[in-house]
Amino acid sequence: MTGRPRLRPGVLWVDVADERVGYDEQAGRLHLLSPVGAAVADLLESGRSVDEAVDQLTGASGRTRGEVERAVHDVLAALAAAGLLQDRPGPAGPGPGGPAG
């Protein structure tokens, strides 16, 4: 997955220690993000692209870019499978709103 995926609106997220818990009232389900999942979600929600999130986590973790990229893509796949990502990610242009102009 590329671009700037975002968590789906309508899920209440609460940070608990280094994890994140989400409650989807419509589906009546709880979701738990691991510390890695919570870090990925934080970066994406702050407007970073997938590549920017990988770069930042690589620098912070001391792991190789390939290892971090696999972990980020695993988190995104799990979020998508659980229906926790917006149906249509935003454009990959500059800033959270996409290309300027």
Overview of this protein structure:
This protein is of the alpha+beta class. The chain has a single domain (11-81), classed as Arc Repressor Mutant, subunit A, CATH 1.10.10. The protein is 40% helix and 17% strand. It contains 3 helices and 3 strands, in the order βββααα. It has helices spanning 35-45, 50-61, 65-81, and strands spanning 11-16, 19-24, 29-33. The chain has a 3-stranded antiparallel sheet with strand order 1-2-3. Helix 2 (50-61) packs across helix 3 (65-81). It starts with 10 loop residues before the first strand and ends in a 20-residue tail after the last helix. Residues 89-101 have low confidence and may be disordered. InterPro entries: PQQD, PqqD_sf. This is PqqD family protein. It holds the Pfam family PqqD. It comes from Motilibacter deserti.
Summary tags:
101 residues; alpha+beta; Arc Repressor Mutant, subunit A; 3 strands; globular; disordered C terminus
User: How many β-strand runs?
Assistant: 3
Which structural class is indicated by helix and strand composition?
alpha+beta
Number of helices in the DSSP assignment: 3
Cα gyration radius (Å): 13 Å
Give the percentage of residues in beta strands: 15-25%
Number of spatially distinct domains: 1
Topology as a string of helices (H) and strands (E): EEEHHH
CATH topology: Arc Repressor Mutant, subunit A
CATH class: Mainly Alpha
Strand order of the largest sheet: 1-2-3
- End-to-end Cα distance, whole Å, is 25 Å
Assembly annotation: single chain
Per CATH, the architecture is: Orthogonal Bundle
Shape: globular
Q: Are there runs of 5+ residues with pLDDT below 50, and where? A: 89-101
Compute the average pLDDT: 85
For the largest beta-sheet, the strand count, sense and barrel status come to: 3 strands, antiparallel
Helical residue percent?
A: 25-40%
Organism: Motilibacter deserti
Protein name: PqqD family protein
